[in-house]
Structure formats: C-alpha cells, structure tokens
Amino acid sequence: MSFKRNVIASYVSQIYTAAIGIVMLPFYIKYMGAEAYGMIGFFTMLQAWFALLDLGLTPTIGRETARFNAGALDAISFRQLYRALSCIFIGVAISGATLLLWQASNIAAHWLNVKVLPMGEVVVALKIIAVCVSLRWLGGLYRGVITGFEKLVWLSGFNLIIGTFRFVIVIPVMSYFGYSIQVFFSYQLIVAICECVCLWLKSVTLLPRFSAVQNASIGWSFKPVRPILKFALSIAFTSSVWVLVTQTDKLVLSSILSLSDYGVYTLAVLVSSGIMIIGSPISTVLMPRMAHLYASGQKVEVIALYKSSTQLVSVIAGAAAITLILCAHELLTVWTGDVEIAQKAAPILQLYAIGNGLLAIGAFPYYLQYARGELFYHLLGNALMVVLIIPCIILAAKSYGGIGAGVVWCAMNAIYLFCWVAYVHIKLVPGVHIRWLAGDVLRIIVPALFAGLLVAYLFPPSTDAIMNFVKIFSVGCAALVTAVLASPFVRAIISTKMMGVKA
C-alpha cells in the first residue's frame, strides 16, 4: 500500500468524520439543548483523560507492529507481545469503567453544574459513558495493530462508517425514542460495542497465523512487555503530559462554568480541533512509515519524508487555522444560526485556532523521535510544558474563563514551537532547523496569512448569511491557494498530476 494512498484515505475518513461531527452539532444543540451538549463535551473530555491509563501501550503496539512488518521482529515474539498487551488492555478497561461507574453520582452532584437536566438522567448517562469510554479506549490496541500493518485504507473506510453511525444516524434514532441524553448515550454505547468487536476481528486476521507460530510458544506471560517497557513508559509519560496540557483547561472549566456555558465553550474548542484533525491523518501514516524507514537504515529518506510532510501540514492545517482566525464570528453565525452563541464562542475559537495551528507544526519533532525510538527530548520538553502551562491555565481559567485558557494555550504553543523545537532539531538533526522552519513552514504560512487578511478586509461586517458564507469561502480559498503555490512539495505534486492527466 503506497504512502500517498494511505494519506489520502486517512484524510478522507478523518475529515469526513470531523466534518460530520461539526455539521451535526447545531442539531444536537437545537433538539437537546446547550446543557445536554455540555454533557457530550464532558464525555469527550473523559475519553481524553482515560488515556492516562494507556501506559504508552497503544502507540507502542503500533511501532512494534511496524517493526514486525519490516522484518525487525519475529512472528513468535510479536504474537507473545500482542497476547500480553491484550490482557493488560482488557484489565485496564475493566478497572477504568468500574472507577467511573462508582463515581458517577459524585460527579453529577458535586462536579457538574447542572441547572436544567434531571439529576437522575445525568447519573444514568454518566454510567453509560463509563462503559462507552472504556470500550472505545480498548479499541486503541486493535487500531494500533491495523495501523502498524499500514492497512489505513480499510481503517479509513471503517472509521467513515462508524462516524456516520455515531454522528448522523443518532438523530433519527432520537427522533423515534426521544431527544434525551439517556437515548443519546445508550445509542453511543451500542456503536462503541460494534466498533470494538469489528476492530478486534480485523486485527486478528492480520496477525501471524498459528501455522507459522506454535501456540505453545506463545504462552501466557508478561515477559514480552519488558523489552519495550522503557519505550512504552516514555510514551506513557508523554501521553500523560499531553492529556494534562490539552485537557486541564476543559476539566477545570467543566466545574467552573454552568453546563450550558460549558457546552458553548466545547463548541468553540471542537471547531478549532478541526485543525489538529486535518493534520492527524498525516501523522497516522507518517509514524509507522518513518519507523519502517529508520529500521531499514534509510535515514536520508526519513528526513526527506519529514520535511515534505511538514509542508503538507503547513498548507492544509495552516489554511484552516487562518480561515478560523479571520472568520470565527461569521462561521459560527452561519453554522449555528445563533448570534448570541457566536458572540460568546468566537473569541475562544480564534485563540484556540492560533494555538492549534502552532501545535500542528510543533508536533513534528515527536514523529522523528518516535521513529528513532528515542523520546528523551520530547519527554523533557513536555515536562517543562506541564510545569508552565498547568498552573497558568488553572489561574487564567478561574479568572477569565475560556478566553483566559485560550490566551495561555496560544502563548505556550508559540514558546514550544519557536524555542523548544529549535533545540530538539539542533540536538538530533543539526543544520536542519532553519531550513525546516523557514523553508517548510514560514514560507507557506506567512504568504497565506497575508492573502487571507487582504481578502477578509474586502468584506465589511454583515448579518447576511450568504455574504458571511462568501467571506468564509473566499478567505479559505485565498489562504489555501497561496499556501499551495508557496509549497515546493505540494506544487510539484499538483504539477505532476496535471501533466499526467494531460498525457
């Protein structure tokens, strides 16, 4: 399976899933209310915090699968590792679900600021969420195997189907059974069960057959985990730091804000997360491919892939970030049809769009370290980030709500990109940083930003939905086209395709 085909397939499924989730959001708010959507936001946040129980095993199985696929790991060792990790994942999933079930009443009564929803329904919904979150997390093991084998086309198609059931089919289901949080989350639980079972079945078909591996040789032992424990714990620390960095604001605000205001805040953050979702398909394909190349000794190809992928993310994620920053109010007004919600959410959206745009680029040195299996600098950088960002976000969120948290998010990601990433590049790949930042990032983002600003300036403030849509579309096109023209890699791909079509 080619790298480009995997990238395209991942992009199609993840962009579709993200777009469907965003497009359907106004319907959730319309039929269920902002407070009910606050519960959905809390559900999303819990899934992220559940990653603390991962112990670094999800990305580790993906890397070890890629190494097995490259011939760096024998079949017996791989099957032993898979069996050991399966036992760990199932145990952790049960433990996590039990903990959330036990604390459901306390969370509803003492953490969430519920004003309208019946407390009994909130408690039941939280219990359903507990099981749903654990099942979706368990699927991470099987996704890691599928990704490691680079079966991204199948996984993308499957994600597209699951996304449709999760975000779209739920509306007719609720129209029949009732627009309540109990119906919503009960349906999500059914989808989560089906998702987990299908992922497990697919991963089983990819594993080395028992004809090639004697069952007695596999055994039931956790010893196969020991050789990768150092790497897994490094990933675990990184994942924990990532959760703390990206979810502390959401956790703090879920207790400070009313559930309805938290729903508005979640709306803004969800839209801004589209920037990271746009970059995610590339990282999904990039990490196993870079690990494969590095394990095969093709280090020059690793750097070339690293730089070209940076350009691709700078073009797509950069254009998306610029559009959200310049057209936040117009987009939210057109999308929700609610001017009051748009006024509240627009400043938060702009701040998180800036921060996520910086983060999409700043994440690249992690992919390089992941391929090398050396995460020291990533761990150190994230540890410093946690020390700085957590107290700042807590203070800012308590004093200024979502806007305060957004300001901290922007500042910290700017410091990380322009200071720490430079340090990591100097240590790992001397001489690459300036060419990477200037040639693969700034030469694309800066012209696109100026193009977007120029087009946005041509449109006066308006309450007309059509004019607002035209402004959003025009700014987005200007930023994207300019970014494409400024990127040698993307420009070369388009030129090659056009010549191929003409031929």
3D structure, described in words:
- It contains 20 helices and no strands.
- By secondary structure, the protein is an all-alpha fold.
- The chain is globular.
- It folds into 2 domains: 1-229, no CATH class; 273-503, no CATH class.
- The protein has helices at residues 3-32, 34-49, 57-69, 75-110, 119-148, 152-167, 170-177, 181-206, 215-218, 229-256, 259-272, 274-295, 299-326, 328-336, 339-362, 364-372, 376-428, 433-457, 465-486, 488-502.
Low-confidence stretches: none
**Cα shape:** globular
The tally of beta strands, per DSSP, is 0
Q: Helix fraction?
A: over 70%
User: How far do the termini sit from each other?
Assistant: 25 Å
Helix run count: 20
Strand content: under 5%
Taking all residues together, what is the mean pLDDT? 82
Order of helices and strands: HHHHHHHHHHHHHHHHHHHH
Features:
503 residues, 2 domains, 85% helix, 0% strand, globular, mainly alpha
Could you write a compact summary of the structure shown?
The protein is mostly helical and 503 residues long. It contains 20 helices and no strands.
Topology:
Elements: H1 3-32, H2 34-49, H3 57-69, H4 75-110, H5 119-148, H6 152-167, H7 170-177, H8 181-206, H9 215-218, H10 229-256, H11 259-272, H12 274-295, H13 299-326, H14 328-336, H15 339-362, H16 364-372, H17 376-428, H18 433-457, H19 465-486, H20 488-502
